[in-house]
Hints:
By secondary structure, the protein is of the alpha+beta class. It has four helices and 17 strands. The strands form four sheets. Strands 6-7-3-2-17-15-12-13 form an eight-stranded mixed β-sheet. It has a four-stranded antiparallel β-sheet with strand order 5-4-8-9, with no helix packed on it. Strands 10-11-14 form a three-stranded antiparallel β-sheet.
Amino acid sequence: MPIQSYLSKLTLALLCIFTISSCRKEVHNIPLAKTDDIAIMQGFLNPDADTVTISLSVASGISKNKKEISIDALKNAQITIESNGIVKSLRFLSETPTMVIFFLPRTEMPVQQGKTYTVRAKNGDHFSLEATTTVPESPADFTFTADGPYSSSQNNAFYKIKTTIVDFKGQNNFYRTSILASSDPNYDPYSRYFTTDEKDQLAKITLTMQLDEETYRAGGNTIAVSHISESYYRFFKSVQTLEDTGGNPFAEPTALYTNVSGGIGVLGAMTVSYKDL
């Protein structure tokens, strides 16, 4: 899935969650008043990607006297990425009515495994954002089996894809497993299998996913296992929880995780391993 499309969908979901759950959620590291507009920054660093891509958007406040952040303010922001004292400026790439995307070619700042990166986004008095993440040192090793077809209660046939990840010992690790379908680049319903090694207690981690028979038989599918940063994991797990409980007024308050100071969002990192299914 193209990074622009992915960030657009994630931004839309995040804005919906922010609106629906604003009466009962907690958001850390935000010095702004709750009625102000709040800048959202998202970025996911990947050594295999051709670019560093950062998106900016806004969660709108509800007061008439609020501090406003316009799309133009986002578009005119100064975005930098820093690692080991080297600082590079990102350039404007594209915009939608709700989001602005900046990029930097990999040739100017290669994302390297085990390195730490800090991204800053500023525009005068409008906002000042900063986030830091460390890229995992190694891609995950995994095996898989495919079994089926089975019939669901809706009489839809599917295959069970069982993935086993070999954990890195001596550290806490976080993983994301997904199935990518070449027959439809936007088909990615299994992108949200997030798991951990339970604080280094597990030597192997097994996940079972389902893939519909038509897509399985079309061929050209790929299993992707990402070794992800803790910030990546905690952000998406909190988003999932808010999505699952957003319509329940009796649900316990849920904290939306963010490692972006001065706003909300996430700067995460990953290394990815692929195998043909």
